[in-house]
Amino acid sequence: MELPQKKYYRQRAHSNPIADHCFEYPAHPDDYNWSILFPKTIEECQKKKQVEFLDVGCGYGGLLVTLSPLFPNNLMLGLEIRVKVSDYVNDRIQALRSQHPDQFQNIAVLRTNAMKYLPNFFHKGQLKKMFFLYPDPHFKKAKHKWRIINKWLLSEYAYVLAEEGIIYTITDVKDLHEWMVKHFVEHPLFERISDEELKSDIIVEKLYESTEEGQKVTRNNGDKYLAVFKRIPDGYNDS
To answer: Theoretical Cys-Cys bridge with 37: which of 59, 108, 143, 199, CB 3.0 to 4.6 Å?
Structure first.
């Protein structure tokens, strides 16, 4: 099975996340059949494994493919709202699985709207890592409400992220970087991880070049702004 060619899957770069797209989603995370996305892994683990890494707005799947062999025991899911782009990632993963039968079984893509349906797919505290790489900056002030990082959505991300879980952000737009940092710093359930601490994180170096967008920024000699945050305890328990 040959790898898909991007020229057959091109789609406009921007999508309105507030619009009513047609999505199917479960009423509860337990209602979703994850074996559709991870057939071999779920079968071998007798349905006990859950998605732990989430790439929100995964684009053409570069980060998933890069991290897959580094974390073979973690299920990783990419979320993408654009139809043709998510089709490309799915075809790419299927081709890689076909070419390398014992690899890439731990990654998958799902077309959905992360701004609306995360709690439908993920339990409280389920995720260990979330990625927001080169998100749409939505430059116009009237469209800032479309940004994937805002104070309301951060509470939702805090819900699905485990304590000590990590959120990685990177962008080539300084204004958006400052916007994201401001909202994370102001949120009571997140704290920024220092540059010194990040030196031991093997994922960080992969964030710069693994995606098509990151490679494009490099070709254009653009700047890249990284900020990483940790989910801190909320002081409450479930009892």
So the answer is: 108
The residue assigned the tokens 């940092």 is: 181
pLDDT of residue 18: 55
Per-residue tokens: 197: 């601490």
What is the model's pLDDT at position 47? 62
Compute the half-sphere exposure of residue 95: CA atoms within 13 Å on the CB side of its CA.
13
Extract the runs of DSSP E, i.e. beta strands, from the chain: 51-56, 75-80, 107-111, 127-133, 161-171, 190-192, 225-231
3-class SS of residue 98? helix
Tokens matching residue 173? 């737009």
Joined together, the tokens standing for residue 56 give 């929100």
Q: Are strands 225-231 and 190-192 parallel, antiparallel or unpaired?
A: antiparallel
Catalytic residues: 136
pTM exceeds cut of 0.85: yes
